[in-house]
Amino acid sequence: MELRHHYGDRLHVLDEPTLSTLLARLGAPATDGAEMPELVRAAYRRLTHAALDHHFPVEKCRVPTRMASAEPRAVYDGLRLSQSARLVVCAVIRAGILPAQVCYEAACQVLPSANVRLDFVNMSRVTDSSGHVTGVRLDGSKLGGDVADAVVLIPDPMGATGSTIQNVVEVYRRLSGGSPRAVVAMHLMVTPEATQRVLQACPEVTIHACRFDRGLSPVDVLMTAPGTHPEKERGLDDRHYIVPGAGGMGELLTNSWV
Fold first, then answer.
1. Domain limits of the chain?
2. Which CATH number is correct for 11-254, 3.40.50.2020, 2.40.330.10, 3.30.2130.10, 3.40.640.10?
3. pLDDT tens for residues 22-52?
4. Which of 70, 131, 187, 209 reaches 20 to 30 Å from 244, CA-CA?
5. Global pTM?
6. 198-226 per-position pLDDT tens digit
7. How would you write 140-171 as a 3-class SS string?
8. Within 10 Å of residue 183's Cβ, how many Cβ atoms?
9. What does DSSP assign to residue 14?
């Protein structure tokens, strides 16, 4: 089940009661850092399956089951995810490390591990003498090669401004070897601001999210489907925190408040 909206076919927001319940618990004040990782794991396992189902190539297969020793017709004859295509998961330090590990592990359950890669991108902000952000540094990043014809997953829990996804996409654009088959931004929560920025600046990116947060929009806008009045939708406060959001998920995941 997906949320109905007017942002086009590059935005997919899951609309499932169980997942919505999990996210509500994840953002509740009573949920502490000890509970947070397993909740994030559960949500990202679901999000990974959705992304693979949507973007990964499939192939026909015939796979005998254990019943084949007693019955020759005990053969699964149908579709499976391609066992030759490549998947690249990008861990964005810091809040993206756990989600990326979950995506990597979930992918390795259904794909040959030799075809699944985990990259690390460490983006440090560069500021000028006035303290304004002028760019990012990639010190300590580790990219395992090209992404030609691969599906690239970028798990970033909080899709707030869209700048993280845009910067990561720029990193992969600079790689030689060819273009990826698909690039997927994966958020637990995403704002209208991030959605609009990524869809415009990164035409190769599709967004998959568990929830679309626009809690600072006018009441009449909240009564309409997302994207009906995109110019009036707002999900970020003045500090670039998501509303309703989860209140410092990156800090809770790492217990680092700087």
1. 11-254
2. 3.40.50.2020
3. 999 999 999 988 899 999 999 999 999 999 9
4. 131
5. 0.93
6. 999 999 999 999 999 999 999 999 999 99
7. CCECCCCCCCCEEEEECCEECCCHHHHHHHHH
8. 25
9. B
